[in-house]
Write a structure and sequence with these properties.
Helix 1 (5-31) runs parallel beside helix 3. 35% of the residues are buried. The chain has helices at 5-31, 35-59, 67-80, 82-108, 111-129, 133-136, 138-163, 166-194, 200-224, 230-256, 260-289. It is built from eleven helices and no strands. It has two domains: 5-131; 137-289, no CATH class. The protein has 293 residues and is mostly helical. This is VIT1/CCC1 transporter family protein.
């Protein structure tokens, strides 16, 4: 069958994608120590190679993998975990495939529609089987992150007008944050122990660390901005809170398949709502009781 230039470009793109993803899966498999995960990733890599060879029967071309993309996703896997990396990659490629490559190819070559369906079902079935420590403890991380966002944004918002000094607010926020970190970690440990969880200590560490990191990020504007710029510092803190919520929810929406928009609105609404209420309380306390620091 004669292949026109447009189809040849599509076939070339598919070949490039398949051979590139094969190498990414091989690289990512080297990161994980778990043999089950390693086998899953290598199995997917093998499938990608078979797809590459099949497309090659139509193009009669050898294609070199995209080294930049291999480096990018391999680096993402090292930083954010292999589950996030491969699901992010598959999500982007699935969008491209549905919108362009496979739909056009299936018109000229019906057998490609079967490959597209098999690849999507097979790979997402395998990806759902992936098990990673970062995702096992996502509940503990959510607990620490969400509680810190609500408590610290609420606290500094309440402190802002009553204390009216960035350094004093930072000090009060830091003391509150460190105390709450220890309290949250201890509570998580006791709760997990009560459930006879094997890794209760690790769960509490994830909760405590995520809480403390969030506290530090939210307090930073008050530490570095001039003493009289407490309102501006509060605004920056709220912006940081929204950024943290955005990044974290994007991560779990990709890794766990959750709805990003719904979770973002929920978390942002709670955090900013508590901050607004606390700010009003601080304003009332300052004016009604005449307390000034």
């Amino acid at each position: 069958m004669k292949i026109d230039e447009n189809l040849k470009k599509i076939l070339f793109q598919m070949q490039l994608r398949e051979i590139t993803e094969r190498q990414i899966y091989i690289n990512v498999s080297k990161i994980t120590k778990d043999e089950k995960n390693k086998k899953i990733l290598l199995k997917i890599a093998g499938d990608e190679e078979e797809h590459y060879k099949f497309i090659k029967t139509y193009t009669n071309m050898e294609v070199s993998p995209d080294k930049k993309k291999i480096w990018f996703y391999s680096t993402i896997a090292k930083i954010f975990g292999f589950t996030f990396a491969v699901k992010q990659m598959e999500g982007r490629e699935t969008e491209a495939v549905r919108g362009y490559s496979y739909s056009k190819l299936s018109n000229a070559f019906p057998e490609f529609s079967k490959i597209a369906e098999d690849e999507e079902k097979h790979e997402f079935l395998l990806l759902d089987m992936l098990d990673e420590e970062k995702l096992k403890y996502i509940g503990s991380i959510v607990l620490g992150l969400n509680d810190a966002l609500v408590e610290i944004t609420g606290s500094v918002a309440g402190f802002t007008l009553s204390m009216a000094n960035t350094k004093v607010i930072a000090l009060a926020g830091m003391i509150t944050g460190i105390s709450a970190t220890l309290s949250m970690a201890a509570s998580e440990y006791i709760a997990e122990k009560a459930e006879n969880t094997k890794d209760a200590l690790k769960s509490s560490v994830y909760t405590g660390v995520s809480y403390l990191i969030t506290v530090i990020l939210l307090i930073l504007p008050f530490l570095f901005m001039p003493g009289n710029m407490y309102i501006q510092a509060l605004v920056v803190t709220l912006v940081i809170a929204v950024i943290i919520i955005s990044i974290f929810n994007y991560y779990i929406s990709v890794a766990k398949g959750f709805n990003f928009k719904q979770r973002f609105i929920q978390m942002a609404g709670v955090s900013l709502g508590v901050a607004l209420f606390s700010f009003i309380v601080g304003l009332v306390v300052k004016n009604v009781f005449g307390i000034n620091l």
